[in-house]
Each structure stands twice: as C-alpha cells, then as structure tokens.
Amino acid sequence: MKLSALPGRIARSLAFRTRRANHWLVAKIVFTTFALLQKLPADRALNVSDRLARRVGPWTSRHRIAMDNLRRAYPEKSEAECREIALDMWGNMARLGVEYVFLDKLYDFDAEQQTPGRVEFKGGEVFTEMRKRRRPRIFFTAHTGNFEMFPIAASSLGMTVASLFRAPNNPFIAQEISQRRKISGNRMVRSKAGAAYVLARILHNKGNVGALVDQKFSKGIPTTFFGRSCETSPLVPRLARQYDAEIYPVRCIRLPDNRYRLELCDKIEPPRDARGQIDADALCQMINDIVEGWVREYPGQWMWFHRRWG
User: Fold this and answer.
1) Which of 79, 140, 175, 272 is deepest in the core (most CB within 10 A)?
2) Which structural domain range is residue 47 located in?
C-alpha cells in the first residue's frame, strides 16, 4: 500500500465515523423526546410537539429551503403568508413524528362503527367496488397529512398493499421507523436497486402497490409542478403501462382536534398514445397536477423542505 493513500483513507474513515456519531446523537435526542412524549396522552403529545416544532423549525437550514420553495410556488403571496405556511408545515411534520409512537392507538377506523372516530374514510364505495375484481393496482400519494395511514387502512379492510418507501438518511431513525411501519401488516419495499423488480412481480401477480410520487428524481421525466420545471420518477407510469394497472390517488387530510380523513379517489383514466398504451410521460404530468391540487388545498400539510425543483 502506498503511503500517499493513507491520508485520504484516514480522512474518509474519520468523516464516516463523525457522520455516524452525529446520526447517533440526533437519533438519541429524537428517541428521548419521543419517550417523554409517550408518557403523555396522545392528544397532548401531538399538541405539545406541534407548538415546539413551530418554534424550533425556523432555526434550521431546512426552513430556508422551505421558504425558498414557497416563494417559488406562490410568487403572489407575501413573506408573512409564506412563513405561516412554513410554520404549519413544521407543526405537521412534528405531529407525523409523534404519530409513529401512537400509530397503533390513533388508527381507529371501523367500517361497522356507528359513531365517528378519530379516523374517517372517504371512498369506501370505491374500495368495495375494487374488491369485486382482482386486478393489478397502483395507489399513489404524497407527503401530505399522515401519509402512513393508508397502508394501515387497507390492511384493516382486508387488502394487502406493498408500499415503496425511501428510508431516512439517519440509519438509527430509519431502523426505528421501519419497526413502527410493521404494525400496518403490509409489506414495505425500500426504494433502492431492485425495488422496481419487486413491484413488477407483485403487479404481475395482480397485487397492489403503493408509492409516494412527489419527490425530486434525478434524470427523471421532465414535468412541471406549480408551473416550474422539475423531474419526476417514471416508475409508477411505466409500471402502470407495462401491466395495464388501475391507478388510484389516495391522501390523508388532517382535521381539527387531531382527527384524520383518508380519501380514496376514483381510479384515474391515464392518457394513452395512438396504440392505446399508457403514455408514461403524460401520466407523470397528470399525477403531478393531482398532487399540486392537494397541496394548494392544504399547503401547510405538505413537506416543503425537500428540493423538489433542484
């Protein structure tokens, strides 16, 4: 081994150890906070975390990204209006984190219940109709409200959905979230090399898959979002085209008093080319337009701090 190679290897090793130590420290702080919140009733824990996040969030680097994205998306809004949306977003994200702790207790939807619970489900007739036919299906959603609830809802209603997800960069937090997600009873497919083949096999067997579709995807299909150019993952449109899968939008909306509405929309009719096949590029834009409509309706419930436009 050349001596000249040692400094570079040592530097990389130190950088790795430093990054891992930082991840461990951040995870410890997060887990300790969640452990303390878990001692509170769910409603109080959610409200406390919301208030805390609204104070802490604006001091983070992610807040600057969120504000920049809001200015791009809403050039007509004032700085104060953009800040208000960003604060709502921080409250939403804090609630999402705490909800992982209480997820098995918060989800109380029962199709037979006579009185409204914490979770209401809109689109039950769509679900009933689809259960009559065995077809490959794709459910897509966005980082809005509590996007983790639909797999639980599907499982509680007797449908298995294999959900594609991207793990957090912090490996310690990723492991904990992975454990929490297992309570849904559904299969989780990590977004990495080979994930497309897993989802393709499920659709080939007339199964159901779910995916989040609102993140930046390098070398994706050129599209627009809020009128601005961005790149979108072609995975869902290409799988839909290959297996002629039915496509359903689904979302979660936060309601007052720590309640939730899950909405399963009618299946969309994707654009098709002259040969009758699904036009993947046009479908990407169609999905973006649907998600944009959701975000415009409840802007404070969307994750503004990721770099959607590069």
Assistant:
1) 140
2) 5-104
- How deeply is 151 buried, as exposed, middle or buried, from its count of CB atoms within 10 A (0-12, 13-18, 19+)? buried
- Local structure of residue 271 (DSSP, 8 states): -
Pick from 83, 104, 125: which residue ends a domain? Answer: 104
- CA–CA distances in Å: residue 7 to residues 3, 17, 18, 19: 8, 15, 16, 18
The 10s digit of each residue's pLDDT in 198-211 is: 889 999 999 999 99
Residue 91 sits in the same domain as residue 141: no
| Cα dist from 51 to 85, 195, 261, 305, whole Å | 14, 38, 22, 18
110-151 pLDDT tens trace: 766 656 789 998 887 888 788 778 899 999 999 999 988 888
pLDDT grade, residue 238 (50/70/90)?
very high
What average pLDDT score do residues 161-171 get?
69
Strands 208-212 and 162-165: parallel
Yes or no: say if 109 and 120 are a contact pair by the CB < 8 Å rule: yes
Same structural domain, 204 and 243: yes
Residue 172, domain member (yes or no): yes
40 and 16 in one domain? yes
Domain co-membership, 168 together with 31: no
The answer on 119 and 77 residing in a single domain is: no
Q: Is the pLDDT assigned to residue 305 strictly greater than 70?
A: yes
Alpha-carbon gap, residue 146 to 306, rounded angstroms: 17
Q: Which amino acid is at 100?
A: Y
Query: What's the CA angle centered on 41, arms 37 and 47, to 5 degrees?
Result: 70
Q: How far apart are CA 226 and CA 87, in angstroms?
A: 20
User: If you count DSSP H runs as helices and E runs as strands, how many of each does the chain have, helices first?
Assistant: 10, 9
The tokens describing 227, both together, are 């009128």
Could you tell me how many residues make up the chain? 310
Residue 217 backbone dihedrals phi, psi, to 5 degrees: -135, 110
Residues ≥6 apart with Cβ < 8 Å to 286: 268, 270, 271
Cα 245–chain centre separation: 21
Would residue 309 count as lying in a domain? Answer: no
